[in-house]
Amino acid sequence: MYHDAFSDTQAVARYAEGPPRVVPGFADMQRMAMILLAERAPDDAQVLVLGAGGGLEIKAFAEVQPGWSFVGIDPSAAMLGLARVTLGNIAGRAQLHQGLIGGAPEGPFDAGTCILTLHFIEREERLRTLKEVRRRLRPGAPFVVAHFSFPQGAHERDHWLTRYAAFAIASGIEPSMAKNAQAGISARLPILAPEDDEQLLRDAGFDGISLFYMGFAFRGWVAYA
Question: If you ran DSSP here, which 8-state letter would residue 98 be given?
C-alpha cells in the first residue's frame, strides 16, 4: 500500500511539504526521536531507517549527529530519489536501498526508526516487519516508531480523523483537500489502536516500550531490542 501511495510523481514532489502541515509538532517529534536514539547509540552509530523515502528524518538526525551513518530502506524508487535530493551534500552518509525490510542489510545496527510508515502496513505484515527490524538491531538498541494510531471504536475513529483534517485546514491546507485526505485515510489505511501498536512491539521482541509523543491522531513510541 505504501508503494502505491508514493508511485504518483506529483505526490512525491509534494511530499516534503506535507508532514510539517498535517503532523502536529513534526519537527519536535523528529528532534525527540533523535534524542531517544542518542541516549544509547554511540557517536559513530549506524542507524537503520525503515521508510526512508523523502529523507526527512535522516536529514534531521544527520545535521545534529555528525558521526552517525544511515542505512535507509523504502519500496518506492521515486521517494528514494527525493531522499537523495533532500539530503544534498550529506547523502554520502546514507546508503539507500529500494525494497522491503527483508531486503535490508543484516546489520547489526546501533539504532532504528520507522516514522510515518507502519500505518500503511496490514497488521500481520506489520508484525513480520517489526520482527525483521528487531533481528537487525544490537541487544538493547533503541527503536523509535511514530505513525497514525488512535482508538478504533465505531465513533472514535471518525472523530480522530475529523480532528486530523481540522488540523490540516488550520495549517493552511485547502479544506476540500483535507477532507479528501480524511476520506482516503479512513478507507485505505489499516490504522490500529494504541494498545494494539504496543502489543505488536512486544510480540516482535521489543521491551521497555514507552509513549513519547502524541499529536492528535499520531503517536510515537520508543522501544528496545
Answer: E
Q: Is 138 left (phi over 0), alpha (psi -120 to 50) or beta?
A: beta
Residue from 149, 83, 142 nearest 109 by CA = 142
Q: What backbone phi and psi angles, to 5 degrees, belong to 206?
A: -85, 155
Say whether pTM exceeds 0.85: yes
**Unique residue bearing C-alpha cell 510508515:** 117
For residue range 169-208, what is the model confidence (pLDDT) as tens digits? Answer: 999 999 999 999 999 999 999 999 999 999 999 999 999 9
CA 150, 152, 158, 159 dihedral sign is negative
Whole-number Å distance between alpha carbons of 35 and 172 = 29
Give the number of other CB atoms < 10 A from CB of residue 111. Answer: 28
Question: Using CA atoms, how far apart are residues 178 and 22, in angstroms rounded to an integer?
Answer: 9
